[in-house]
Amino acid sequence: MPALPDIAVTAARVEQLLDEVGAADPRAAAPATELVRTLSELYGETLGRIVGMLDESTLRRLATDDLIAAVLVLHDLHPDPLGDRVRAALDRVRPALGMHDGDVELLGLAEDDGGVVVRLRLAGSCHGCPSSLVTVSQGIERAVLDAAPEVVRIEVDGLAREEPALLQISPRRPYAADGSDCPAVTSDAQPVGVP
């Protein structure tokens, strides 16, 4: 079975192709962009009509599929508001954080740079923990971006900054300031705009 397309990768590829068309023939850039916009509007309108014919439980069941959920978000048709999706994503990572007496709190959402900025605060042993950057970039961030692809940046209070050490000696496992283990929630995610 072929792998499901990643909506962000697909969108980046469309942008790349539009740039290539514009570079090859600057006169073709505007019509090519208009073509993509028109098709997107057509598919969005069609999807909106389909969603309008579905009962609530069917729509919610469809929205559990990652690809369908991303397309619903793209066309502003997802049944769950952004805040609810972000809170659910944080709830999914809390057990891993809680294993190390850590937590994460949603401080707020704000519009910025053509998308949404999520403000979080690390709490418990996560606040100031040397592994907090890994925790955020690989665990929390991935969960939030999967649930809310319209997020353009995640800002985190209590994020430990890596300071250059005089000696490059580090323990085999990261520890919090009080000596307890720090969580290092891992995945294959790449950091996105964590300050």
Rg, alpha carbons: 20 Å
Class by SSE composition: alpha+beta
Q: Can you tell me the CATH architecture of the largest domain?
A: 2-Layer Sandwich
Distance separating the two termini: 39 Å
Poorly predicted runs of 5 or more residues: 162-195
In quaternary terms, these chains amount to single chain
Residues in helix, %: 40-55%
Number of strands: 3
Overall tally of domains: 2
CATH class call of the largest domain: Alpha Beta
Mean pLDDT: 77
* Assigned CATH superfamily of the largest domain: Fe-S cluster assembly (FSCA)
What CATH calls the topology of the largest domain is GMP Synthetase, Chain A, domain 3
Ordered list of secondary-structure elements with their pairings:
Elements lengths: L6 H18 L1 H28 L2 H7 L3 H9 L7 H17 L3 E11 L2 E10 L7 H16 L3 E7 L38
Parallel strand pairs: 2-3
Antiparallel strand pairs: 1-2
Helix pairs in contact: 1-2, 5-6
